[in-house]
Structure formats: structure tokens, C-alpha cells
Amino acid sequence: MLDAALIEAFRRREDAGVRAVYREYGRLVYAISLRALGQKHLAEDATQQTFVQAWQAADRFQSDRELAPWLATIARRVAIDIHRRETRRSSSSSLEEVSATDPALITMPAGLEQWYEAWQVRQAIDALPRDEREVVRLQHLEGLTHTEIAERLGIPPGTVKSRSHRAHQRLAIALSALREGLDP
Fold it and tell me: Cα–Cα distance between 32 and 62 in angstroms, integer?
């Protein structure tokens, strides 16, 4: 997460703020673009266009909001525009000849929201204290039990359980916006 001073510097289009935003969110924007477009060169183009558009609109960004969803929205729109442009460029047939199930007719590839959610989860895990982060990693990414984690880390199983409990409480708070966004 960027501090308020860097966000304000970004809003004023200062070099330091723009660079900080790119460093912090460049991978997210590229991942969204690559997922939507499926080609690295198009994703790179979309990433560049996303940050140009973000820079142009920086003064309109509301500093009380989070940058990631704002940038993700811009990235999705840019990817849709590039997808449409590429579809027109590569399509020499008429619409009547294209099947109704042709993927080129779909404007937004499925899964972009899941990529963004996965990125948010990764950010929340990365923000955990090191000992809690390690327990979560071993538990969820490697599928180890509390006993196996205790053996691996050389600590009592009760310590693993308490670290796991604290970590999951922190993650629940950090990711509450995801849960609220999924509920009707």
C-alpha cells in the first residue's frame, strides 16, 4: 500500500508518485491485461495504455479510495478496447459468418475478477507478520496439518494453532471488502 503522500504526489502527476504507483500496481495491471488478451505484447501495450490513462486522470482520483480497483477498472476497459481493435484487425469475415459462440464476440474474458481477488488475497497474506505468514503458507499452499507445520518449524502445535488463528483473524479483516462485494 502506498502512503497518502505518494498518492497525493500521483494525483499531482509528480514523477515520484507516478513511479511509486507503477511499481506498486504494475504487476496487477499486467496480470489483468494478460489474462484478458492472452498475448504478452498486447498485455504490455495495455499496461502502458492503462498507466497513461491513469496519469491523465490522476487529478480526478479520489484519494480516500483505493488505487488498485481504480487501476483494475481502467485496465479492463483498455483490454476490452485492444481486444476489439485486434478482433477487427484480424477479422476479414463478416459477422454473419462468425458463430454465435465465437470467443471474439465476448467482450470481457471470464476470470478477471478472480485475478484481482487473488491479488488482494496475496497482498493481505504478504502484510501478515512473518511467523503468521509462514504458517498460512504452509497450511494453505503446501497443505500441511498443524502437527506437520509444528514439526517443520520446530515449534509446539499450540503455537502453530494460535498463529494460524491470529493470521486468519487478520485476513478476515483485511479481506472483508471481498466478502461484502460477493454478498447481495
Answer: 22
**Closest-CA residue to 125 (of 160, 167, 173):** 167
Residues 85, 131, single domain; the answer is: no
Task: Report CA-CA distances (Å) from 101 to 86, 97, 127, 138, 154.
Answer: 18, 12, 42, 42, 55
Regarding whether 82 and 24 lie in a shared domain, the answer is yes
Q: What is the pTM of this model?
A: 0.52
Q: What is the DSSP letter of 13?
A: T
Can you tell me the mean pLDDT for 105-121?
A: 63
As given in the structure block, the three cell numbers for residue 125 are: 497474506
Separation between Cα atoms, residue 33 and residue 43, nearest integer Å: 5
- Residue 37's domain comprises 1-91
Q: Of 62, 55, 63, 56, which is closest to residue 26 (Cα–Cα)?
A: 55
Phi, psi of 152 (to 5 degrees): -65, -40
Residue 116 lies in a domain: no
The DSSP output letter for 139 is I
pLDDT digits (tens, 9 = 90+) for 48-91: 999 999 999 998 988 888 888 999 999 999 998 888 888 776 65
Of the candidates 124, 25, 110, the residue with the CA atom closest to the CA atom of residue 69: 25
Q: Which parts of 57-100 fold into alpha helices (H)?
A: 67-90
Which CATH number fits the domain that encloses residue 59? 1.10.1740.10
